Amino acid sequence: MVTLTINGRSVDAPKGTMLVDAAKAAGIEIPIFCYEPRLGPPVGACRMCLVEVEGMRGLQTACSTPVAPDMVVNTDNEVAKDAQDGVLELLLANHPLDCPVCDKGGECPLQDRTFRFGPGETRTLEPKVHFPKPLELSPLVALDRERCIACYRCVRFSQDVAEDAQLTFQERGDHTEIATFSGDPYEGRFTGNTIDLCPVGALTSSPYRFVSRPWDIKNTPSVCAGCSMGCNVEITERDNEVKRVTGRPDPNMAVEEGWICDRGRWGYPALRSADRIDSPVLVDSVGRRKVLLERAVAEAAGVLVNRDARVGILLGDPITVETGFLALELAQRVGAGPAMVARMGIPGTGLGPMRSLPGAQMDDIDQADVVLVIGGDPCTQQPVAELRVRKARRRGARVAVFGPRPSALDDSCEAMRTVPGHLMDAAGAIRDRLDGSQRAVVLWDEADLAAEPDAAALIAGLVQATPGARAIEMCADTSGPGLRALGIGTDADLLAATEAGEIDVIVTIAADPITGPSGDRWAQALVGVGTIVEMASHATAITGHADLVLPLLTPLEEEGVLVSMTGRAQRLRPGAREVPGAAAAWEILIGLTHRLGTPVPDRTPAQAFSRLAREHAPFAGLDYEVLGRDGAVITPPAQHDPDSARRDPQGEGLLVIACTPVFGDATAHRSDALASVVEPTRVGLSPAEADRLGVRTEARVRVATPHGEAVLPLEVDARLHEGAVYLFVGDPAQRAMRLLPLDRGPVRAVVGVAAREEVSA
Amino acid sequence: MTTHELEEFLAPMRHEYADPRSLILPALRYAQGDAGWLDPQAMAAVAEATGFSQAYVESVASFYDRLYLEPVGRRVINVCVTLSCMLRGSDEIFEHLADYLGLDGEGTTDDGMFSLHKVQCIGACDRAPCLQIDAGQQIGPLEPADATCLVDDLREAAAPARYDR
Predict the structure, then answer these.
(1) How many CB atoms lie within 10 A of CB A428?
(2) Which tens digits make up the pLDDT trace of A55-66?
(3) Which chain B positions have a beta carbon within 8 Å of A171's beta carbon?
(4) Mean pLDDT of B88-112
(5) Do the strands A708-716 and A748-753 form a parallel or antiparallel pair, or are they unpaired?
(6) Exposure check for chain B: N or C terminus, fewer CB within 10 A?
(7) Residues of A numbered 164-203 whose beta carbons fall under 8 angstroms of chain B's beta carbons: which are they?
(8) Is the separation of the CB atoms in A712 and A658 below 8 Å?
(9) CATH of domain B75-156
(10) Range of the domain at A315
């Protein structure tokens, strides 16, 4: 600890602390614009933090001056105040002061600091520099060059955090402007973070442009349900609508560090997409019609109460743990006996050894000496994880990426492309990288290692044998870890029972089995089901077949707990309630138990969570208060299964590598804001493979697996491996996921030229 | 300008710079020698030879007045307009040259022969009013008539093999 004096007060701070942080800890605000420790070392670009340090010549920038013993610092004497006045006067010399029409107005650090520290008037008589405005930096980010104070935050984010090397400063002096090379659009997975970082109104969100004023909105901290990362976000509500999603101003440093991906940021317009279900629908002898929610719940209870009804409950994704728990409760109260409850997901078969490894949190990557990414592609499937991995590499950690997919990390990290279906081949290289490491963190992909249990067992052994090595599972589903902790298994048995005619009533919750893996089998099986009750936020492939449709709220609108891929249980908080006729799944489930005459004692998700924490060991000791601001880490059971063996897919054709980019998921397709960046569902082939199949010049190709077939756009990409067909899935309209087996395991596909009528269709 | 040529040019000086970013400036100046300005291909070659992004290279180039991001004439005439030269009549020199070249202020002649620019102090106040052709020596003190003679001479001269700007 170092003791120094700031404004006459004695302050203690750890050695190496910058003056600005030491003052902040003591409750003294030194104004800043460019200082942001998450972007790396301070740059001292804005000069706002000038303070007087007695004995040092001239004024010092508090953001880049470390504390020293017996230092005497003044931040509010005449000299310092004069400097603050002067810097603000210069920063504002060319600033248009158009606060009344600026989206940042009211939540603008420049505005706030000018009020608090500024001179209040200007001596500048010269005309201000004008730029045409606004400039579209990308379809999502608008740039107003007149408002920019050249603090470098956005440029540092692009260069040093996202490492997309796109944003730079052009020209100099009062003509300095943010730009990309040759005016190309700013492309990337994280571009929106520059908006959160901008301390003025220079970078604003185009979809949020002129939408609201800070005093008309309500901000709610919550968690993004877009992937298993569990990034903490803040939801902006006005008029019962989600108007904006941003990174949380007080980031969860153990998860996302305040960075969120553009899919998480601009997915919210999907709440208002045309296929949103806005009212319950009842189909009976009278016909198909909209009914009130109370009536719909009563109808559902009427079906479930039937003593002869054999019931199955199918959970999709994302599902809160409260909903999972209440589904289990409902299962005990229905029909002919306990209902089968299953989740759509990947069975844990063969993953036991990997899941038994000591777990790591995202911030452990910051301390790691070796970081390995095995299978999957965090850059597209859990995007914010990519930023941690890049940070580790910049710090000097050894980072290596293994797997069959090309990755955005390939350029800057050691990359080993394995032959599709042979992650095992990477074992030697993995052993080499782990050898001698002290604090290795291994990120492994649930889907890829579940498909290769022998590789999983071998790699788990290597990690286990490395002292200090820990693992993070990159989960395929947002709610997988939470539902696993409740002991809810995957849906193979439920499908088998449905096919055998042993299910009379099926209740789906946020699930679309016909669009999902083995969708054609599900479609066939559901024909024999007497009653289908669907709970969903958006229309799915089964909505047209359902006898009763109950509209759900989305994760941005509901309360509950999600467990992230690192086992962190975090609270969702409702940001808005856009559809008055819809309800949260937990509300409907509680309502059903009341209608069935055997009510659960819970009235809120908080009560349900406290009760499930008592009944399910992984959650022991937790309640909403304990979860607090940053959540709590649980360990879902491994579901160890030692008898798993390698499964080589039968049949002819190429091995399918399934890719599930979040920028191509259902929400991305439904959000009009993301139209410019959405990833289409498509087939990827290497040039050689495309030549061999004679489809190189085709726009669309036919893909057929034993589970179904589809006609999809073709993308020929030299980075893809030969001997495999890459299937990029996610668009609910294309329903390509159904080509995969139910367990999403290995499968082969025949790829060929699509017939003319298929192409036009 | 190819990446390979640039790499050969940079090879002997790589060890002189602790931070490889410092290589960008000599590389840009060398690359400009081919066409007299930095076309996108030259910029891409600099990016590749130095290992930085094109956006960053462009950012550096845009900072400097003498690195041209748009085509300029075969010869660039830089008239100093800072204090000493201004007091000694650089305005007249500039106006006279602009008239003579048929330009309305700064710009490039239609035949692509000359670009006329106002520049800040070129460090030759003792020879004010003064101008500079490309990165060559400062010429001064000048009378308006001297300046037009200079232009005539330059028009007769052959195009330089490489531009030094």
Answers:
(1) 11
(2) 999 999 999 999
(3) 62-63
(4) 95
(5) unpaired
(6) C
(7) 165-172, 179-182
(8) no
(9) 3.40.30.10
(10) 294-345+482-515+553-633
